[in-house]
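Hi R.,

As promised on Friday, here is the backbone we talked about, encoded as structure tokens. Could you run it through your design pipeline when you get a chance and send me back a sequence?
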């Protein structure tokens, strides 16, 4: 064998190996690019979801503050009502009795210190129209 043939065969083998390595590297790079693109897409979706959750959290916080401010006086009214009941003033029973006689909720508010919602509730549950609806 001639040394030239051996060198040509070695060069051809080396060139083929380099081509195979380049092809494998190219496929690997394409696969990594695809995975990076998928991760970037997932990251963008995660950012949008995080912003949505933050927005919901802010709105929920505002609602909680609004509810807390709306019902801040409830405990005071309950204490007042309990104090009246403990003092022997059957205010609620009297309010129910007056509602049965047809007294309007605004008068129940004034006379017994009920809130508008409480007076409306007593009037609806025990008022003249509620009794007529039960009879029909």
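Update: got your reply. Pasting your designed sequence below so it's all in one thread:
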């Amino acid at each position: 064998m001639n040394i030239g043939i051996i060198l040509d065969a070695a060069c051809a083998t080396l060139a083929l190996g380099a081509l195979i390595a380049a092809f494998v590297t190219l496929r690997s790079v394409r696969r990594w690019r695809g995975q990076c693109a998928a991760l970037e897409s997932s990251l963008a979706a995660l950012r949008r979801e995080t912003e949505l959750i933050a927005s919901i959290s802010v709105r929920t916080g505002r609602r909680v503050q609004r509810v807390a401010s709306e019902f801040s006086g409830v405990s005071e009214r309950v204490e007042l009502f309990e104090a009246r009941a403990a003092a022997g003033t059957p205010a609620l029973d009297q309010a129910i009795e007056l509602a049965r006689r047809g007294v309007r909720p605004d008068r129940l508010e004034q006379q017994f210190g009920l809130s508008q919602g409480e007076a409306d509730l007593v009037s609806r549950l025990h008022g003249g129209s509620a009794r007529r609806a039960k009879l029909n």
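One thing I noticed while checking it: The longest helix spans residues 3-70.

Thanks again,
M.
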